[in-house]
């Protein structure tokens, strides 16, 4: 450094610490410049380290940078000085080569010109060859593309042809091949794109057409279900008939024949020719496949399966069939009027389920067993409700029987297709009860007609043929009558064999319904006995009761009715044997239900007996109404009244009728004697009561002794009638006891034995034990009033005066006796 005097002052030598700091700065800036000179490393970090250091770092960096540049300039200068002579030598050589290069350039240019002129023709030929080869390549490419396109066009043409001929399933297969195989090969062409765009529309068109065909099929099958059902039921009926015929032939043997049949005629055993004819008829029956074309269903199912929309098709088909099932199950309002209405109804239902069964087995999954069972359960409930309602309107047993046969065939047909039909057979038992009711109504009319047409007189038999004819219709056996010569009379009237025959016809009719119900012979036998019991205990008994109560039925008819019921009662055991024979059930296995004919005919007989007693009493009342007593007469006529003699003559002739009551054995003899005795006793008691009531009539105010004497003559005739034994069998004076009350009362007044009556009253040995004090008092007062009225001057005659006093005394005593009785009671 310079001082003020101009002399240079040397700096102080650096210390060790300053040396170390300088070395560190040099090293740091060396690293920075190395990083800056490197082209791979980023400069941002390096520059940040320069400026972010201590103060004056930028200045120091610029100083170091200038020093670094000066150093590199010195190195470049050294390198240029080293290579300068070589560079000069190279330039000199290059200038020498320049002249040779220009000469060579001229030669090359001349050679090129001559070559160009010589290759013009070759170039032209070459261009022609190139053009031809390009054309050939284009032609080959075109042929190749056409060969790829031709199958597509052929398949599309085939597709159009299949659509025109309605081969939709094959058309869908063709579409599938076009889409998956042919069109992808040439998909870049526009016509293929148009084809590909058109295929979905064609698929939709096929779906619509196939669905339209299915709708037509569903409509057609709805109209033709009755024909399909008719064919199926006919086939089932023939099959059942054939099997039953074979079973009968196998069980009957070559020589046996059934004892009884439904129509009363023996059945001929079916021979081999008849069975062959049945087989031929069965083979001629058309099946559902013969009557219905199922191809629309198959075709539509395949189409929707290929299109991947099978579920939609299945749902649509099942929904439509459910709707059709509901329509089929709706009956016509007048179905119950004719059997044809029921037949059409069953045919439609059978046709519906036969079609569904065929679809179930011919297709896989279109309908399932669960779906058909659901349809059948729904249909079965509806069918049972419909049949229960419509059958209740039917009052014709023949129509009910035909309905039952239709239900059996209907059930057998559907059972053959695997549908459960137990509820239908349960319904048949309900209809059987209704059938029995209609039979009972029908036979009630039959019985009434028989009773109305009967003459209620014994059957006259002129010849042995007539006798055999009657015996063949009714089981009558009487050894005494058989020994008699012709002509003779059978005790019962014509209605008895007719009733017996009609009961058998009823059993036949009831058996017709019990057939084919898949029940055992024992059950059928029990059903027949129960229905026959209803016929006897309700229908026949009711008809008999109504007959007995009819006003035009007289005593003679009633007696004949008693005889008829007796023989019908005896025939009940033959009816039981008859039921056993037609059901082929051994007697040891039966007897679960017995016939109640015994009680039925006994009740009818008792009613007839009671009606006999009633009519006798009514007749007695009619005669008594003719009585015309002169109650104030002074003396009697000396003979009985005319009305009473007529009444007694009537009773005599009436009781002679009872000799016709059956007495062919001891039981019947005792029964007939009892009826006659009871009727005779009832008539005598009623006559006695009526006569006594006549005396005690409140409207009768006065009775003279002469009237009492006349009344006594009439009672004497009644006692004579009773003692004449109008009906045999009475012991002693039993019948006369019916008039004992009247007799003692009249004796008391005729003898005028009041002292004895009053003295012995209440004693078992009293002569007037049956005379009631009240009755005696009433009659005595009527006689007292008469005595006062007719004997005006009786007070002037001592006897009459004494008698009047006696009457008054007796009246007082009787009244005191009556009062005492009331106090004791």
UniProtKB/TrEMBL annotation:
Record-annotated Exocyst complex component EXOC6/Sec15 N-terminal domain positions = 64-233
Q: Name one GO cellular component term.
A: exocyst
Q: Which residues does the annotated region (Disordered) include?
A: 1-24
| Gene Ontology BP, a term | intracellular protein transport
Keyword line? Exocytosis, Transport
Q: Which residue ranges does the record assign to the Exocyst complex subunit EXOC6/Sec15 C-terminal domain?
A: 424-782
Biased composition, Basic and acidic residues: where in the chain?
A: 15-24
Q: What role does it play?
A: Component of the exocyst complex involved in the docking of exocytic vesicles with fusion sites on the plasma membrane.
What family does the database annotate? Belongs to the SEC15 family.
Q: What is this protein called?
A: Exocyst complex component
From which organism does this entry originate? Gadus morhua (Atlantic cod)
**Gene responsible for this protein:** exoc6
């Amino acid at each position: 450094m310079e001082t003020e005097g101009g002399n240079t002052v040397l700096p102080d030598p650096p210390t060790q610490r300053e040396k170390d700091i300088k070395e560190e700065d040099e090293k740091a800036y060396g690293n920075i410049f190395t990083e800056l000179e490197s082209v791979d490393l980023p400069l941002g970090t390096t520059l940040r380290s320069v400026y972010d250091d201590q103060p004056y770092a930028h200045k120091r960096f610029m100083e170091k940078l200038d020093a670094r540049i000066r150093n590199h300039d010195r190195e470049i200068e050294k390198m240029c000085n080293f290579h300068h002579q070589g560079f000069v030598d190279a330039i000199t050589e290059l200038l020498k080569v320049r002249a040779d290069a220009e000469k060579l350039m001229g030669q090359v240019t001349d050679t090129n010109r001559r070559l160009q002129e010589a290759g013009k023709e070759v170039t032209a030929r070459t261009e022609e060859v190139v053009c031809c080869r390009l054309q050939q390549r284009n032609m080959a490419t075109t042929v190749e593309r056409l060969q790829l396109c031709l199958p597509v066009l052929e398949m599309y043409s085939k597709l159009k042809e299949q659509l025109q001929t309605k081969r939709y399933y094959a058309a869908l297969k063709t579409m599938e091949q076009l889409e998956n195989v042919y069109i992808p090969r040439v998909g870049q062409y526009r016509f293929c794109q148009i084809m590909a765009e058109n295929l979905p529309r064609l698929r939709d068109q096929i779906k619509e057409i196939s669905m339209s065909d299915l709708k037509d099929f569903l409509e057609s099958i709805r109209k033709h279900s009755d024909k399909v059902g008719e064919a199926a039921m006919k086939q089932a009926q023939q099959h059942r008939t054939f099997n039953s015929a074979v079973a009968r032939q196998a069980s009957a043997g070559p020589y046996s024949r059934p004892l009884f049949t439904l129509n009363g005629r023996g059945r001929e055993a079916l021979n081999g020719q008849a069975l062959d004819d049945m087989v031929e008829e069965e083979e001629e029956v058309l099946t559902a496949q013969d009557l219905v074309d199922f191809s629309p269903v198959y075709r539509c199912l395949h189409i929707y399966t290929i299109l991947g929309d099978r579920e939609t098709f299945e749902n649509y088909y099942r929904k439509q069939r459910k709707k059709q099932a509901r329509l089929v199950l709706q009956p016509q309002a007048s179905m119950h009027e004719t059997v044809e209405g029921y037949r059409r109804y069953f045919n439609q239902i059978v046709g519906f389920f036969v079609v569904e069964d065929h679809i179930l087995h011919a297709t896989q999954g279109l309908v399932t067993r669960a779906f058909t069972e659901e349809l059948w359960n729904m249909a079965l409930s509806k069918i049972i409700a419909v049949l229960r309602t419509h059958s209740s309107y039917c009052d014709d047993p023949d129509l009910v029987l035909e309905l039952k046969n239709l239900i059996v065939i209907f059930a057998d047909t559907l059972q053959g297709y695997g549908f459960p039909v137990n509820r239908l057979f349960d319904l048949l038992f309900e209809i059987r009860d209704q059938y029995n009711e209609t039979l009972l109504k029908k036979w009630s009319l039959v019985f009434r007609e028989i009773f109305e047409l009967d003459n209620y007189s014994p059957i006259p038999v002129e010849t042995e043929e007539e006798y055999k004819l009657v015996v063949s219709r009714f089981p009558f056996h009487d050894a005494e009558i058989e020994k008699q010569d012709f002509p003779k009379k059978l005790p019962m009237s014509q209605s008895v064999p007719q009733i017996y025959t009609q009961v058998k016809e009823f059993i036949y009719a009831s058996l017709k319904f019990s057939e084919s119900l898949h029940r055992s012979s024992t059950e059928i036998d029990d059903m027949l006995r129960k229905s026959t019991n209803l016929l006897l205990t309700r229908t026949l008994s009711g008809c008999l009761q109504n007959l007995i109560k009819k006003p035009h039925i007289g005593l003679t008819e009633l007696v004949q009715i008693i005889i008829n019921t007796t023989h019908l009662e005896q025939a009940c055991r033959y009816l039981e044997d008859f039921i056993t024979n037609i059901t082929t059930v051994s007697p040891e296995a039966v007897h679960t239900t017995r016939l109640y004919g015994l009680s039925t005919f006994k009740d009818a007989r008792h009613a007839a007996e009671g009606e006999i007693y009633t009519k006798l009493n009514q007749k007695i009342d009619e005669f008594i109404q003719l009585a015309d007593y002169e109650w104030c007469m002074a003396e009697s006529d000396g003979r009985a009244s005319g009305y009473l003699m007529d009444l007694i003559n009537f009773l005599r002739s009436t009781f002679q009728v009872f000799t016709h009551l059956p007495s062919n054995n001891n039981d019947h003899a005792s029964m007939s004697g009892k009826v006659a005795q009871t009727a005779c006793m009832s008539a005598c008691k009623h006559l006695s009561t009526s006569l006594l009531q006549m005396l005690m009539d409140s409207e009768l105010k006065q009775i003279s002794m002469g009237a009492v004497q006349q009344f006594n003559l009439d009672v004497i005739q009644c006692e004579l009638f009773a003692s004449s034994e109008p009906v045999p069998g009475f012991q002693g004076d039993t019948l006369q006891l019916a008039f004992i009350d009247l007799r003692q009362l009249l004796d008391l007044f005729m003898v005028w034995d009041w002292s004895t009556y009053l003295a012995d009253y209440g004693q078992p040995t009293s002569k007037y034990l049956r005379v009631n004090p009240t009755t005696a008092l009433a009659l005595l007062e009527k006689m007292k009033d008469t005595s006062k009225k007719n004997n005006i001057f009786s007070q002037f005659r001592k006897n009459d005066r004494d008698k009047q006093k006696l009457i008054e005394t007796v009246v007082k005593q009787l009244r005191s006796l009556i009062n005492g009785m009331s106090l004791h009671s």
